Amino acid sequence: MLWLITGLILFLGTHSVRIVAEDWRLAQISKRGEQIWQGIFSVIALLGFILIIWGYGEARAEAQMLWNPPVWTKHLASLINIPAFILLVAVYVPGTKIKASLGHPMILGVKLWAFAHLISNGSVADITLFGTFLLWAIFDFRSARRRKQSTENQSQFIAYSRDAIAAVIGLIIWAGFAFYLHEMWIGVYPFA
């Protein structure tokens, strides 16, 4: 569990700087430059991500079960992840109504992903991982909504066809992950 917690601290800690220390972040960027800041940020976040994956695998193997969720929650979680994947893809498709109206679809996608996994898993490792991500996403979304976004960073709605593109790509990625990659990478088939 130590590696999982260390990974969460590194990964979500780097992603929380804007929540708790925006002025410090801007001072560091000004002092070191954008590319160096992003490089340091990326290395620490990547290390955290690797530790999360490794630590979760170890913690899950020996984790105490707090409850045994019914099988139907796994199917519900898989369905909840459909909009989560669409929201994640909408970040990268320019001109979607999704991004223009929500502003931060990736954070909302993380919320859905974490919630879906919380309802379908009952071990201490699951609650630690997914509960921490859910709490982070709640605070990050609030913080992001409070920050004044510059007009260059705001998505401009172009056409609903962009939303359709995000939805189709999101569904394809979700299907690939749900029916193949989740079992291969995580060791759990979502529809079992």
Note down, in words, how this protein is organized.
The chain is mainly α. It folds into two domains: 1-62; 66-192, no CATH class. The protein is built from nine helices and no strands. Helix 4 (34-62) packs antiparallel against helix 8, helix 5 (71-90) runs antiparallel to helix 7 and helix 7 (105-120) runs antiparallel to helix 8.
Task: Describe the secondary-structure layout.
Layout: H1 2-14, H2 17-20, H3 22-32, H4 34-62, H5 71-90, H6 97-102, H7 105-120, H8 124-146, H9 160-186
Helix pairs in contact: 1-4, 1-8, 3-4, 4-8, 5-7, 5-9, 7-8
Number of helices: 9
Helix content: over 70%
Ends: how far apart? 26 Å
Number of strands: 0
Order of helices and strands: HHHHHHHHH
Give the mean pLDDT.
91
Helix/strand/pairing class, anyone? Answer: mainly alpha
Features:
192 residues; mainly alpha; 9 helices
Quick structural gist:
The protein is mostly helical and about 190 residues long. The chain has nine helices and no strands.
